[in-house]
Amino acid sequence: DDASAALHAEFVLSEETHKVRTAGIKREEDSIVREKELLEREKAAYIRELKRFRDEDGSRFNMYPLLGGRYVLMNMLGRGGFSEVYKAYDTVDMREVACKLHQLSPQWSEERKRTYVRHAARECSIHKQLQHPAVV
């Protein structure tokens, strides 16, 4: 029965060793999963930034560093289908602002252009009603 007891003790020790190793591997796997999620978020942010740089470099507004003799375009914040938003500096009020610049497609019909201008004017009217120091 000494052999049976020794075999049982060896089995218990082996089982404990297995549990410790399994727990260590699980902790390592969890750490790797967290690191992968962090890297995926960083990758997505990097890709967004690269797209923003590409959009900014390709913007037709690069030729106009000063808009209306007042707003200095600093960098693009975002781009939509037919507009771009820039971080800008208001040289009259001496503060940072956001400028949304709309552009009409040359391929649009005159009716489509008029509709878009009405939409942009309505949006401008809504923005004028906002009361916030950074909204101009």
Descriptive account of the structure:
This protein has 136 residues and is α+β, with helices and mostly antiparallel strands. The protein contains two helices and four strands, in the order αββββα. The chain starts with a helix and ends in a 7-residue tail after the last helix.
Q: Layout of helices and strands, plus pairs?
A:
Layout (H helix, E strand, L loop, with lengths): L1 H56 L8 E2 L3 E9 L3 E8 L4 E8 L7 H20 L7
Antiparallel strand pairs: 1-2, 2-3, 3-4
Summarize the structure.
With 136 residues, the chain is of the alpha+beta class. It has helices spanning 2-57, 110-129; strands at residues 66-67, 71-79, 83-90, 95-102.
The largest sheet, given as strand count, sense and whether it forms a barrel, is: 4 strands, antiparallel
**Helix-strand pattern:** HEEEEH
| Fraction in helix | 55-70%
Count the helices. How many? Answer: 2
* Strand fraction: 15-25%
Unreliable sequence segments? none
Estimate the mean pLDDT confidence.
88
- Large-scale geometry: rod-shaped
The secondary structure category is alpha+beta
Strand order, largest beta sheet: 1-2-3-4
Q: Could you tell me the number of beta strands?
A: 4
Rg (C-alpha, Å): 30 Å
Give the oligomeric state.
Answer: single chain
What is the terminal separation in angstroms?
90 Å
